[in-house]
Design a protein that fits this description.
globular; four-stranded antiparallel beta sheet; seven-stranded mixed beta sheet; 371 residues; 31% helix; alpha+beta
């Protein structure tokens, strides 16, 4: 078997073999495809179904995707989707309660999801970092979430390191990219004609050994390093984390919160596309015949007015308070609670904000006015 750090060469023409091998091992394979004008992760069986030749253009409040005519398979950096739905379902039943005979009793049982083997091809380094954050939240040693755990166990990840970035990316500021360094089973770096491949787990080693790939030539490894470094150097956005979380704690009443509230629509787009946001709501859904009911969990957003409802009042009734809550949680209280930032620098919240609010600019503005 190849060593985890060994670089192998996968010709582009053999990428189909990798997909086939995953399918033969019982995995439901998902990959980046173009749908409804965006890149999404969806089931695939053939390379031709992937986003071959597509490239996106992103800016604050702007996302466009178009054909470039190239042969590159993974040239689109990311879309609105991430790994989050694969492990933390957008909506799922947690408990089913059923009437138990005419005496008025009832029975309740958990509705754990069926474990499935799912392979996701084309995962970016920032999304691997986001999954690690979600793991810390849902797989805590004392209180692991069995619904999340059931999905997480069946996940096989084929990462793709970024050799180009979008204008909204800032993963280098948080050491979460552009190179996939951990959390994957197999990692690929796309170059002209093919991919540099390496294993990151025993399952990944087995897969690459089955493909019997040749070792990547030394000059190819040099080209890979140059491409990764060039991607990092070209990333235009920066987020200085050196004074976080103290900067936010010291500016709870900063006038900048009012400035951003004048633009923010409180729509929740940023939280829906964020790969680490885990706010959710739980509610009961009775059946029409009253024979049973379900306790359902579904995604929620701290930008929703109802999310802060507590004992007859809205704790965060103003938009400025809800935006502050979101940014504080991402870059301050998350660090205290989980030991890492809740932001991975993917830039989705910037691209998919309808008014183009930029998290990196908001932090910079707080710092500038506080100086």
């Amino acid at each position: 078997m190849p060593e985890p750090t060994q670089r192998l060469w996968l010709e582009r023409s053999r990428l189909q073999q990798l997909l086939d091998s995953l399918g033969e091992r019982g995995f439901e394979v998902h990959g980046p495809v173009v749908r409804d004008g965006a890149l999404v992760l969806a089931p695939v069986r053939a390379v031709e179904e992937l986003a071959v030749g597509w490239r996106e253009s992103q800016a604050p409040g702007r996302y466009r995707i178009e054909q470039s005519g190239s042969e590159r398979v993974f040239d689109v950096v990311n879309g609105p989707g991430s790994l989050k739905p694969f492990v933390f379902a957008a909506r799922e039943p947690l408990i089913r309660v059923e009437m138990d005979g005419p005496g008025g009793g009832f029975r309740a049982h958990a509705t754990l999801p069926e474990e499935r083997a799912v392979a996701v091809v084309g995962v970016r380094a920032c999304d691997l970092a986001a999954l690690a954050v979600q793991d810390r939240v849902f797989l805590h040693d004392r209180y692991p979430d069995p619904y999340y755990a059931a999905r997480r166990r069946g996940l096989f990840l084929v990462a793709v390191s970024c050799t180009r970035s979008a204008s909204t990316c800032f993963c280098t500021s948080l050491d979460t990219g552009p190179e996939a360094t951990t959390g994957f089973d197999v990692a690929l770096s796309e170059l002209e004609g093919g991919f540099v491949a390496r294993a990151g787990s025993p399952a990944g080693e087995d897969l690459l050994a089955e493909l019997a790939l040749p070792e990547a030539p030394a000059e190819t490894c040099v080209a890979e390093r140059r491409a990764l470094d060039a991607c990092a150097e070209a990333m235009p956005r920066k987020l200085d984390p050196s004074d976080l979380p103290e900067l936010l704690y010291d500016n709870l009443d900063h006038p900048r919160w009012d400035d951003v509230a004048e633009r923010c629509l409180s729509c929740g787009n940023c939280t829906q596309v964020c790969p680490t946001c885990f706010c959710h709501d739980e509610r009961d859904e009775p059946s029409l015949d009253s024979g049973h009911s379900l306790r359902v969990r579904e995604w929620d957003s701290c930008f929703s007015l109802e999310h802060s409802y507590l004992h007859g009042m809205q704790v965060r009734s103003r938009i400025r308070d809800r935006y502050r809550q979101w940014l504080m949680h991402k870059l301050a209280t998350w660090i205290d609670q989980f030991g890492s930032s809740g932001c991975v620098g993917c830039g989705r919240c910037i691209s998919w904000c309808p008014v183009g609010i930029d998290l990196t600019q908001e932090v910079a503005a707080l710092r500038e006015r506080s100086a």
